[in-house]
Every structure is written in C-alpha cells, then in structure tokens.
Amino acid sequence: MKMKFLGLCLLWCSSTLFAQDYFPENEGVKATNKNFTAFTNAKIYITPEEVIQNGTLLIQNGKVIKSGTSISIPTNSVIIDLKGKSIYPSFIDIYSTFGVEQPKKSPSTRRAAQYNPSREGFYWNDHIMPENSANTKFKFDAKKAKELVDVGFGVVNSHIQDGIVRGTGILVALNSTDNDARRILDDQSAQYLSFSKSVQKKQAYPTSLMGSMALLRQMYSDAKWYSQGNATTKDQSLEALLKNKTKVQIFEAKDKDNALRADKIGDAYGIQYTILGGGNEYENIEDIKATNATYILPINFPDAYDVSNPYQAKYVTLRDMRNWNQAPSNPKILAENGVLFSLTTHTLKSPSLFKKKLAKAIKHGLSKTAALKALTTTPAEILGKSNIIGSLKTGRQANFLITSGDLFDTNTTLYENWVQGRKNVINDITLNDIRGTYDLDIGGLIYELKIKGNPSKPSAELKQDTTKFKVKITHTNNWLTLSFAEHKENKQYRMTGITHSNTNTISGKLVLPNGKESAFKAIKIVNYKDSKEENKGANTSNLTIVPITFPNVGYGFNSKPKKETTLFKNATVWTGENEGILENTDVLIKDGKISKIGKNLNFKGVKTIDATGKHLTAGIIDEHTHIAAVAINEAGHNSTAEVKMEDVVDSEDINIYYNLAGGVTSAQLLHGSANPIGGRSAILKLKWGETADKLIYNNSPKFIKFALGENVKQSNWQSFSRFPQTRMGVEQVFMNYFQRGKEYDALKKSGQPYRYDEEMEVIAEILNGERFISCHSYVQSEINMLMKVADKFDFTVNTFTHILEGYKVADKMKEHGVGASTFSDWWAYKYEVNDAIPYNAAIMQSQGITVAINSDDAEMSRRLNQEAGKTVKYGGMTELEAWKMVTINPAKLLHIDHRVGSIKEGKDADIVLWNDNPLSVYAKAEKTIIEGVTYFDLQTDLQYRKAIQKERNLLIGLMLQEKAGGAKTQEPKQTKKEHHHCDSL
User: Fold this and answer.
1) Binning pLDDT at 50, 70 and 90, where does residue 488 land?
2) Does one domain contain both 736 and 879?
3) Could you tell me which residues come within 8 angstroms of residue 182 by beta carbon, excluding any fewer than 6 positions away?
C-alpha cells in the first residue's frame, strides 16, 4: 500500500514537472524553473490546529509539495533556514472589492420617479442583476494588492457591491508577478445578494427593506416558474439566477436583525446563505446560532467617542457607548457558541488598520487559533476551495507568511508573504531585531536608549537622567545610523554602527559636535515589548466589559423575565365584560392566563400583591401604531400587498418600553398610507427584550392596510408621479386589483398551472374572507366608495381607521358591518380633516359601531388611557364604555378578543395595575404584565434610571482613559430614532 501511494505521488509530481504550457513566450529564452524551495527548521502551521516544530516546507511551481519533520529534500532545491521563525498560511478575504470598479451613484436627470425597468430581456426589476460578473470588470491593482499583502492576505474574493442580486464574484491570488490566467482562481466564485438597491439603477421599487424582502421572495418564485418552462419570454436574469444556484450564496446583511431576515428568506427556498454580519451579532447570539449560517465578520470596531465636552457627551446614546465597549468581543462570542465565521477587511478605511483591529479582538478574548481559522481554513471552506487554498497541506497553493514568531503577537515581525510561490518582502528577514532598551556608552557617559517600532523603520527615545534628546534613527542592512542634539546648544552627535544579534550589542563610530571621532557601544538590557494598552495580547483581566441586556439598550433586562403566578388582592377590577367594574376583587394569574376572579381568594406559595385602592385593567390595545418598525411605507408601487410589516419589526425600539409604561400590551403595526393598497400588518404583543418574531401574535389574524385621500394621490409628495393622481383614480386601482385577484384566484382553484404571485395571493385572501382590511380614511365620499367596491366584490371592510368624518356616514357603516378606529380630538392638521369633531367616536358608537381610539403616533400611544378619557367629556360616554375603546373594542376589531381586551377567566394575562382611575391624567401604570410576565414595573424603572446614569459615567470614564492613552477617537454624535407616521417614507 505504501509503495502504491509513493507511486501515485511520483506520478502527480511528474505530471506537474512535465505539464505543457500553451502560452507562447515572446520575450527572452523560454525555460521552466524545475527547482524546489525548502524552508527548514521552522514552526509550521499546516492548519490552525496542525502545527509542526522544526519542520520543513517544500514547494515547487507555486504549490506545496510536502511539509513535515522528516522530509527528503531533492538535490535541486534552494534551502532557506528559518530557525526560530514561523510559517503560517496567508490570509483570505472573501468580501472585497479588490480590482473591481464599483458603480457610482449617477446624478438624477428625471423629474419623476421611474416605475418600469430600463432593460429588455431581463427581470422586471432593475435591481435584480444575477447576470453581472465581477470578472468582466476586473483589473489587477498592484498598489492595492501590496497593501493587502503587507497585512498578510494572499487571496481575495471580490464582487460588484451594487444591487439586491449582484451576480458572481471573482477569486484572485494577490500575485503581482504573473498574469490573470494564473492568479484568477475562480471567475464565478460565489453569488452575492443584499437588501440594498443599485446606486446606478433608478427604478423606484423597492423603497424599503420590506420591499426588498418581498422582491426576493417573488424572484425565487418566478425562477421556479421559469425553470419549469412555463414562461413565454426569455429572461436573462432568471437564467443567470438558476445557473448560479449551485454556487455559494453570500448575503450582505450588515446587522444582526437583517441576518435573521435574510436567513428566513433562505430557509423558505431551501438556501443556506453565508451572511456578512454587522458586528453586533453578540447581542442576539442564540438566534444567530440558530440560523446555522456561516458568517463573514467585519472587525471595524468603533473608536471611542471624544466625551471630554460634557455638553456633547450627553448626546451619545447609551446604546452607542455600549457598542464601543462590547463590539470587540463579537468574534469571541461567536467562536464560543460554535458559530463558524471568517474575518474581512470590509468597511476598514485601509488594510493597514486590520492588524490593530484584530489585536483588539484577540485582547477581548478571541483565541489565536480561532482567529487563524477565520482567516484561512474557514474562508476556504466557505468558497469550497479547501483543496487549493487556506492551508499548507500537500497540493495547496504556496501562499504563506514567514514571521519572527507568534503571528498575533504585536512584537512579531512579518517578514515575507509568499503568494503562489512568489516572494513578497515586507520586512528584511536578514535584518536584526534591535528593538529594546540599551545602555549607551558615549565617552564614559551612560544614556538610556529605547528602540521600538518596526525593526526596519524603528523609532527611538534617548535620555540621560531626566534630560531627553530628540533622536533620528535608521536601520539598513544591519547598520544603524543615529543622531541626536543637545537642546540648549544644539550640538549634534552622529553615530554609525553595526548590530550584533548574537551579543545583543551595537557598536561603531561616534562623531562628536566638535568633529572629533570616538567609539560607542550599546548593550541591550531589556527586550522590546509594546506597552500600548491595545497590544497586551489576550489578557482580558484588565478589561471592563459592561454586561449585555435584553434588549441591549437602556432599560433592558439583565436576564429575560419569566412567567409568575401572581395574586392581586382587593383591586378595583375593570373587567371590560358584562360584570363591569368590580370593587375589592382578587385576580389570580397562572401559567400566563387569568386563572381566577373573585373575592377573598387565597393561594399558598404564590406572589401576592396588595392592590387596595388601585385599579386592575386589561392591557391597552392600540389598533393603529407605527412604533417598533424599521420601515413604514413601501412607496414604489400603487399596490404593495406583497410586503409584510412582520418583516420589519424592530424589537429594540424604546417606544415599546414607553408604551408598556403607558399600559399598552398589544398593538397593530400598520403599513403607511403611501399607496391605495399597502402592506400586510403585524399584530404585536409588546414583549420587551424578546426578538422580533416573538413579539408577533401566534396564529395571528391576517390584516392589510388600505388608504384613501391625500396621501395616496400624492398631494404633498411632489417627487412622485405614479398613478393614481386623483381620488377617482384610487377607486379604479381597487377595481382593477380586485378583478385581477378574482381572476387569479379562479385560475389557482382550477388546477391549471399558474405563476405564483404573492401580491395576488393577498388580494385573493381578501376576496375569500381570509384577510381583513384596515383602511386609512377621512372624507365621507371615499368611505362610501370603498364600501361600494367591497359590496361589488362581496367582502366586508373590517375597519376604517382615522375615519374623522365617520359621524356623517355612521348609518351606512353599520349597514356594511365595518368598525371604526379613530382619534379622540385631532383635527385641522391637513385639509381633509377640516370637518373633524371630538364627538365623532361617541356618535359612531351610538349607531352600534364597534369603535376604538388609536394613536398613529409614538407619543400619543403611551397616553391612550387619557385619550379614552376624553370621550367621557366629548359625548358623555360612561367610564366603562370609554375604557372599552382602548381595550376590548380594538381587540374585537383585530379579531383577538377571545384572547385579550378584558379581564376574564381563561384569557391571556395581559393586565395593568394602575395607581388611580385609569382614565385620569394622574394615573400611572405600576405594573404592565403580558402572559404572566412583568415587562414594566414602576419601581424597577426608577432603579433602571440610576443604573443607566452609573453605567454612562463608567463608559465615559473608560472612553476618557482611551483618549488619554493616545487612542483614536470619534466626534460625539446623536443617534435618534425617527417617530414614524402614516406618511413616513
């Protein structure tokens, strides 16, 4: 067996030796160098885990022939003794723009938005460009290659970073001495995707993150349809997409939440993306791990803020301060949790910063083995190229680094970076390392000389006793030239000497200020060690890392809260049911449900709260909100039924916490009013500290946002010009889409082949009574119009929201069966609300309509109890009926009244304990509970405020220390989340 293996090795070697090159040689004598190069006596990292001491690396023709401790070196070998040196595989960056010209944003020449594609024969959306190939735009850049090589990179994977589907990348060895035929390892290395539109293409759709997600879903469905031969036209984009589907799929997420969004799309279509992260994955490591994805991590950790000015410091959010403090731990946390990742220079201003940032990650706990894997074997594995790059196993390309020692030690010198067997010198390997502290003897006077920095470009400090001297120093070919001057008299001393590595001395000739010559000698007394704070290796004992909270912002939990069995005693209970308001009543919550309501209830071993003099209510439900969202409108089309607000839930929006403080436990997150047919709703429970998916109601009723009026016809949006431009046109949009939806549904039910259309699927759900409409509305004529359209297509509008002229058509609304969700007393903020009156809610309710009070505003939503109270003043409603307008009535409108909205045995324990009548302006929510979990507690809130101030002071102190230590800082900036409304774009 051994002889057979040896024979195969000889056959492989001979095939390499005698391979024929079909390229003609037109310059000089054509000859092939058949010699070997043997690097001996080195510590060799074959892989991050496989290390040999005093080994030999044998290479030929740019490939590794063999490595080990007992290698027979061929006679025709160049032998390089690397005693005391180390060899590592060169690094690989799989997310680069190297050599590929990137599209630049073209100036807009259009006065109106572009809604149709600009290309023929391609996909209907210009931002889908799988046919693009980085290979067609590649031009080797020797200057940038050197920048990367000097840091340790040998191979990069580059692509066109533009568009939602960006086409294929190109894998390139950074070999400046050969041509592209040799250095291009794969001209279609991976397919790249993102959520970002092209900067060059002007097609309006999509205008939002949820639009990008919907577009990707439809694209994959269309590709499946196309692959089955059903399409009647040729589509070069879909053909390229199908051709590329077997390649590695790399998705640019740049954020932990977007990573989960991308993974969800991939899971739906059987695709496992490799995900470019954003550096904040540590905040949600459990869900990141659950994606089973491999990640590409930027290490452009943020610089400390310059918080020396207290007026500016107060504008830096605690979240941003934490990110500065915690982000360098991101690679370590992923490694500890078994998440596979590679590292990238992406977003760094210069590759030269990479080493410093990597050192920071190591200082924050990333093991050196994990770091090496992330730069070598893992990126090779991601690209399916482990058989040619990423290690120094036999047959791999000869891409390796020669160092003076531990690669990740800041005192280590990187001498050479060999790429495809070609040597790139970074530092002269024959140059002695003269760094350290010396006793310098000049004519019997002893000076302290400190030499530091790069051995080939050192810097020096010189002093005698307390006197310091300004020094100039150079080190070339082991000859040192040094000069210094006495400050007072400016007398120049010049020295030239040779360095002796074996004796740790420097000796030579000294020229005194008077021109006389003498000798000098310097003896090293202390070896060099970089003392900078960021270069103290992996010792984390001196680090202060603030703990992660859930969510990782102010007011977050140290650990996620759990359900409790709780008994409220002697409360005034606003049931919201026929029982009305019950005095001195007890309520038991158990297993997340309202378990028992009665008087004098007693249960042992349960948490008991004395609610005497306090009021217990169901949690407030906001039928119409725009908090907790990354995006509100997809404005690219006049119908965007395909988009989902569930895709863009922002579980870390501080307004969730503020709403809990106002007693709100559930809310419908609605699409905006940019188009007649908007996007699908998300019905949320405000579970502060949970991830986005866990905020969404399970088995959630299906809703969609429609809109009428000024917004949809773009009265105030002059940059838009799509249909409709009039209220008459709005009606025609509805008629057209419902007719098309009816025809689509009929085709689908017929059993004949059909193209899956996510937008038409939603319209069909409305027609089939499976999805409900919540419609933005103001003017009575339009309200009547939509009800007539609904009657024509035999469905019922569920809710008119805003509905400020509802009092004019309440009888017709009752006849149609539609509910209303309105404001208590908003008016005159635009022309179409001129006829609004504060009695609107009471009048509609008097006609038997289910009426709710909503917010449509982040500030109002946390005061909905007071908004409900206004209906007592305007309309003479009873307190209980007023309270129902923010509890059971919105629950009925949202079809969740069987679960929430009142205090009834068996319902979810979504309840609020108030210190006063909940309709009063003096009322405060003392506890807000969802499914038995306390998400807001007034006393805990006071503790949070003190803890937040203490933590801010700590982090400000740490940043001031960083600045004092000479570290780079950034200007303070204010990160402020916009309050979204219906018309937010």
Assistant:
1) low
2) yes
3) 62, 173, 175, 420
Q: What is the pLDDT of residues 294-327, one digit of tens each?
A: 999 999 999 999 999 999 999 999 999 999 999 9
Q: Estimate to the nearest angstrom the gap between the alpha carbon of 711 and the chain centroid.
A: 32
523 and 626 share a domain? no
Query: pLDDT (tens digit, 9 = 90+) per residue, 637-681?
Result: 999 999 999 999 999 999 999 999 999 999 999 999 999 999 999
Position 867 in a domain: yes
Is residue 804 assigned to a domain? yes
**Residues 556 and 951 sit within 8 Å (Cβ to Cβ):** no
Q: Residue 509 falls within a domain, yes or no?
A: yes
Q: How many CB atoms lie within 10 A of CB 878?
A: 12
Closest CA to 856 of 677, 629, 618, 640: 629
pLDDT digits (tens, 9 = 90+) for 172-209: 999 999 999 999 999 999 999 999 999 999 999 999 99
Q: Are 825 and 711 in a shared domain? A: yes
By residue count, the chain amounts to 985
State the pTM of this model: 0.92
Handedness of CA 134, 135, 137, 139 (dihedral sign): positive
Residues 6+ apart with CB under 8 A from 96: 156, 157, 158, 159, 344, 345, 346
Average pLDDT over the chain, rounded to whole?
A: 92
The CATH number linked to 465 is 2.40.128
Distance CA 949, CA 695 (A): 29
DSSP state of 770: S
Alpha-carbon distance of 771 to 745, in angstroms, equals 14
Clarify whether residues 635 and 523 are in a common domain.
no
Phi, psi of 559 (to 5 degrees): -145, 150
- Indicate the residue type of 413: T
Please state, in angstroms and rounded to a whole number, the distance separating the CA atoms of residues 460 and 265.
Answer: 57
d(CA 553, CA 94): 32
Strand partners, 510: 495, 518
Same structural domain, 628 and 482:
no
- Answer yes or no: do 483 and 631 share one domain: no
Domain C-terminal end among 476, 496, 527: 527
Domain final residue, candidates 900, 932, 966: 900
Domain that holds residue 832: 620-900
Tokens of 291: 């994606």
Token representation of residue 886: 């923010």
Angle at 427 (CA atoms; ends 423, 431), nearest 5 degrees: 115
Say what the pLDDT of residue 73 is: 95
User: Is pLDDT above 50 for 133?
Assistant: yes
* Together in a domain, 840 and 717: yes
Q: What is the CATH number of the domain that holds 735?
A: 3.20.20.140
Is 674 among the domain residues?
yes
Question: Do residues 43 and 49 touch, judged by C-beta distance below 8 A?
Answer: no
- The two three-digit tokens of residue 350, written as one number: 């210069």
Q: Based on the domain organization, do 630 and 499 belong to the same domain?
A: no
Q: Quote the tokens at residue 790.
A: 């609904």
Cβ neighbour number for residue 907 with a 10 Å cutoff:
20
Phi, psi (deg, nearest 5) at residue 585: -120, 150
Q: How many domains does the chain have?
A: 2
- pLDDT surpasses 60 at 288: yes
What is the model's pLDDT at position 456? 80
Per DSSP, the three-state class of 522 is: strand
Residue found by looking up tokens 């504060």 in the block: 838
CA distance 270 to 73: 50
